[in-house]
Amino acid sequence: MEKIYFDNGSTSFPKAPGVGDAIRDIIEHGAYNINRGGYEGAYEVADMVLTTREQLCRLFHFSESRNVVFTPSITYSLNYVIKGLLKPGDHVIVSSMEHNGMMRPLVQMAHQGVTFDAAQADRDGVLDPQKVEDLIRPNTRAVMMLHASNLCGTMLPIQQVGGICARHGLIFVVDTAQTAGVSPIDMEKMHIDALCFTGHKGLRGPQGVGGMLLRDELCSQMTPLISGGTGSRSDSEEVPDFMPDRFESGTMNLPGIAGLHRALTYLEEYGIENIARQELAICQRFIDGALTLPDTRVVGKLDTQDRAAIVSLDFQKMDNAEVSFLLDNQYGVMTRCGLHCAPRAHKSLGTFPQGTVRFSFSHHNTPEEVDTCIEGLRKILTQG
Hints:
Elements lengths: L3 E2 L13 H11 L10 H21 L7 E4 L2 H12 L5 E5 L4 H11 L4 E5 L9 H5 L6 E7 L11 H11 L2 E5 L18 E5 L11 E5 L1 H6 L32 H17 L1 H19 L5 E4 L10 E6 L4 H12 L1 E2 L1 E3 L4 H7 L6 E5 L6 H17 L1
Parallel strand pairs: 1-11, 3-4, 3-5, 5-6, 6-7
Antiparallel strand pairs: 2-8, 7-8, 9-10, 10-13, 12-13
Helix pairs in contact: 1-8, 2-8, 3-4, 9-12, 10-12
């Protein structure tokens, strides 16, 4: 039985061509430590890291490569921003579609005197930007939200919300976990002050590397959560005040960055517009097929306008976990079942507490795989 991978919202598979080779090459031929070793091999690795920062700047339309900070994952990036920026008395606006990568650190900060309100999305995950503006208070400091729902794929109106933040002098923080590498993102046009990304989903790199892109004014406002050796200012015990050293203490995940560098090169060559077109065509084919299934709710929007290639199904007469298990066991289709680390979003969409079965696609998936999955679901649902 051939396996069909429909869980790209968790991590992309297969990775971009050459990612494994790039990781192996640096490990076997010179994983030299940058900012420490004063020899040619270390300088070559440092050049690769700088090139990767510049690639991310091009991807997200950002101008300051020194303000590209590498972290172990987007979860770390969100924690660095939320906990390093907010102070007691600050108010934050989020959406009702947030992932726990945003909500758990924010709830932690709420125990320390930070308050937040969630702008309510509708049953399809669509958010009216006016609902964000209506929540602004005199002590509102930031708006923080994801770009696209990891549950139903609906994109939030990032550009309009960014305009609201610019007019009101608010910091705008965006979680791009489901859109980086598959949707155009322009930090300038969208007025994004802090963009958090992960390397292993749409960017098609390895797990264990992510990061954040920070505007200058934000860098000085954020307190570094992790401090230690950077290889710079070694005569001082104070945290460096310049970027990216201010937020990059310790030895970096250089094999991970090497893999990400290769993945970003692939994205530049292939074109994210091409990737988006192919993924959304697969997504629409799946939605159309799912609408023909008995006793099945397609959660969220029924088209591919303003969405990522993610679809959740809620089976009305069978347990979602059982359907997911049978789909893998009998037809080799790999999905994710449950609450997807987003209980607030499930409540907005009317799928709490039962959760959903999530199908998330890549441009490597084929129409034949979609058809196999839909027919498998049909047999599972009709045979009980």
